[in-house]
Amino acid sequence: MILDTSKPTERIAYLFDFYKYHKYKGKTILNIESNGSFNTQRLIREEGSNLPEYVFRSESYHQERMKDPLIFSPLKWIYNKAEHAASIKSKDHLKRVWCRYRDKYRRPENAAGLLVFERLLFNVPMGMEYDFFSNGAYLPFFIDIYDIDIEEETVLKTQDWVLMPMSIPVNTYFKCTKLTDESIYLDGWLTLDEDKLDELLTKEIFRQKAKSYHFSKDFRIESSIKVVIDIRNACLHSALFSLEISGENDSLHERMQYEVKGTMPLKREDEEPFPKRPKERYPAFSSLENKHSFLLEDDDESFII
To answer: What mean pLDDT value characterizes the chain?
Structure first.
């Protein structure tokens, strides 16, 4: 079965529910709970291009313990199949959104941290993309289903990215487990990209900020990604993502879960593909800066990619 992704789509609406908790050496670094809705649209490909382009627009967004979250919308993404990489096509308007937000909340005690975060978003190659994959529900939209013959048991290598804030490079794989007239069912997982990590460790700037787990690789990655593709539109219908990383004698712990569901059901009657899973609760942050509090500490807690 070959999906036709050359045609544009109407705006397709989605609901999402996201949760992430990250702890290192007994210190809670991230605790994010958010939910909301957005829509996405596949655009007409530019002349001579075989790279699909998507626009994401936020419709509603709520984040626990944060009154005024930073929202980048719209976002235009392009997927490069050869490089297994999805990237944001233009960041000029996003920089203006960031500058207004930064200036509104900048104070002497957080100025250095905001500067580090700004560097990540706009100066580090793929920094913004890695942050969105690590702290949002974008990954399932960029699966390499473009112009290939998909059968049951087909294995697809898709997005290569870096988990933040741990700076752990990973590869993403999917396997087709079921085909129907209207749906493609995929099971996915993440693996450590050891070659990329070894390459990073040859760079002095990375080694200076690297944690002990980068050198020892003493951590486990347990993941599960369940995806349903709508064949009619050649786009995502629903996804459930679960990730847990632990290691270094329990000093490193991260858990991330999210669900994305299209609001338009499949035409045929079918079972719900994913059950709801209860989310374990952890101590909460309360202030605005705590979403990226690891940037507001000393240099040892900053991003290191």
So the answer is: 84
